[in-house]
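User: Can you model how protoporphyrin IX containing FE sits in this protein?
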Amino acid sequence: MDSHRQFFWKRLHSLSGVVPVGLFLILHFYSASFSVKGPEAFNHRLETVKAMPWMLPIEIFLIYLPILFHGILGVILSIKAKYNLLTCRYFNNLRFVLQRVSGVGLFLFVGAHVYKTRIDPWMHGIPLNFYHMAEGLREPLTFTVYMFGILGAAFHLANGLATFCITWGLTISPRAQARMTSVALVLFLVITLVGINSVFGFLGMGVNI
Ligand code: HEM
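Assistant: Here's the modeled complex, given as structure tokens:
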């Protein structure tokens, strides 16, 4: 592929990580956090989202296709990347590796999550609701996979926002990049806490403030 085309696809990959995929991830974590308010509130939230107009095209064109595009190109870029963490032990080099490792992990997790919340209920003719999630999360394996999934998603999005700002020339000076790293760290902690709290919400142990 010529370098102009490569540039175009890499920029589209970068943009898709923030809009729409990153934006969706934030909204998705917010929806999941209704679990801390109990079964009724969570199920009501699900019904409200499902009843919104244009849901099918929104799901296909703003959620599934962009995640597939970002994920498949991401796996290709992760495989092709040159790794030298063992010889160059810098913090930013570790972030480079973790961005790709978390991406590949997320690819597998998103597949498992879609299976658990969409395909499995559909195959067994049962509705997806609070109780289905709670039952799954009581299994130690599912609980552990979700914990790692949340950590990976939080790191990938927070660190990705910092690298996005470099990619698009929004943070040019070392000082601006250092400040963005601090913002990313806070974001990582907030997304992780909100996500883990939602999982505990399904187990009746979430903090509801
Ligand atoms: C929850 C879904 C995801 C979100 C919110 C997300 C978000 C992001 C963001 C914001 C960036 C930064 C773009 C930049 O540096 O300009 C990024 C980069 C990246 N993502 Fe994702 N991503 C997701 C899923 C995935 C998956 C499933 C993979 C599969 C491996 C992946 C692989 C990558 C790679 C390799 C990069 C670095 C691209 C580069 O710098 O060349 N991402 N992602």
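A couple of observations from the model: The pocket of protoporphyrin IX containing FE is lined by residues 10, 14, 17-18, 21-22, 25, 70-71, 74-75, 77-78, 99-100, 103-104, 106-107, 153, 156-157, 160-161, 163-164, 167 (CB under 6 Å). The helical segments are 3-18, 21-32, 39-50, 55-80, 91-123, 130-137, 140-167, 174-202.
User: Helpful, thanks.
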